[in-house]
Amino acid sequence: MRSYAAHFKPVRAPAGIAEDVGGTSSGTVQHVRGNLKSNLAGGDHTLLETAEQGEDAAKKAYNDVLAGGVLTGVVREVLFKQQTHIHASHDQVKAFRDRKK
């Protein structure tokens, strides 16, 4: 996600969008859950389920922002391109998870 933030930074300020200095709380929760499951030997399938939940949260965030109809121009274009990658990443994680069943 950090690279997504770097791509977004040049268009953020001219559009009057305040800088975000951190991730989402749901992202933090997913990261902690993943660490716990990893340390408790949950196995690959469990870790991939946790990763998919994180990807679900990212998909929802992008969907919500883009569906809001507030963003226009370059900002919307950058976020739409990122959303495409988020969806592809989610699908890949889900496919990995399904293979581990």
Taken together, the total number of domains comes to: 1
**Gyration radius from CA atoms, angstroms:** 15 Å
The N- and C-terminal alpha carbons lie at a distance of 27 Å
Specify the biggest β-sheet: none
Tell me briefly what this model is:
With 101 residues, this protein is mainly alpha-helical. It contains four helices and no strands. The chain has one domain (2-6, 24-99).
Description:
The mean pLDDT is 76. The chain has 4 helices and no strands. It has 101 residues and is mostly helical. Helix 1 (2-12) packs antiparallel against helix 4 (73-99) and helix 3 (43-67) packs antiparallel against helix 4 (73-99).
Write the layout of secondary structure elements.
Blueprint lengths: L1 H11 L12 H15 L3 H25 L5 H27 L2
Helix pairs in contact: 1-4, 2-3, 3-4
Features of the shown structure:
4 helices; mainly alpha
